[in-house]
Amino acid sequence: MFPHLFFENITIDDISHVFNKNIEVSVLRLDKLHPVISGNKWFKLRYYIDEAKRSGKKNVVTFGGAWSNHIVAIAAACKINELNSIGIIRGEEPAMFSDTLINAKEWGMQLVFISREEYKQKTLPAEFLSGEYYIINEGGYGITGAKGAATILDHCNKDFTHYCCAAGTGTMMAGLINSSSADKRIVGISVMKNNTGLEEMIKELLAKNSNSTTPQWDLLHDYHFGGYAKYNASLIAFMNDFYQKTQIPSDFVYTAKLFYAINDLLNKKFFPDGSKMLVIHSGGLQGNLSFPKGTLIF
Ligand SMILES: *Cc1c(COP(=O)(O)O)cnc(C)c1O
After folding, report:
1. Which one, 13, 247, 273, 294, has the greatest CB density within 10 A?
2. 169: CA distance to ligand 1 center in Å?
3. Ligand 1 center to residue 125 CA distance, Å?
4. What is the mean pLDDT of each run of 10 residues along the chain (298 residues)?
5. E strands within the chain?
């Protein structure tokens, strides 16, 4: 049996006490949904998987790196839905597989390694170009992914003024924007360095002809810690400290940078007094397995 999705596990944890400001801070715990298809990934993938099944294609192909949350989520989602999955992995086949790749294989994914140059072009090896393969973009980027992410807030039965999330491809953020009313504000923390094209990528996914009802949104580029999956001692110390205060684990690629940013922005009075913030815990904890044991206290 494969573990199922546990929607009833999703909670909204109030962590206002940690910041001691005149602002309510809560966390939507999507990380508790599933050990592998955790966080935002199930939401982003749900309509792609539906579409793949409807198309009658039995094989799903996607792209990712050796520690990609997306890769392992696709592998699990396909297994559960009786689809074959193929992961096109960036770089030469390593002598030792990452935990992520080992996991993906256990979920039945066929791994195909291509050189970093080929990967940049996103060229699919010729054998996957026939019509039998359903292709999902790296990170689940696309309108269909945003449509799925727009259902994240269905699991939130309270009203907030601000919704905050980490942004990689921006698909989750686009979904949050599309599903929020004009009086809300959405704040995204970009986890990549100088990814200035991200605004445009998000705009591509916004519901058309709804300008008058689109909430205000901001993308902040100052919390990447050197770039995608880069970190330093102060981020690790923050993760441990944050866990001690909240019992909430975070991952160093996305949610640690998000929580760090929220803490910093609160100190800088970025949010007006009286704000009610919901921070999306988008999961991704499996990536922490790349750390030496003992680095984190959780
Ligand atoms: C994939 C991922 C994101 C990024 O989502 P996008 O829709 O690509 O912006 C954020 N957080 C976690 C934990 C992820 O795994």
Report:
1. 13
2. 7
3. 26
4. 75 96 97 88 96 96 96 95 97 95 97 94 86 95 97 96 98 97 96 96 85 87 97 98 98 98 98 98 94 95
5. 12-14, 24-29, 59-64, 84-90, 110-114, 133-135, 162-167, 185-190, 216-220, 276-281
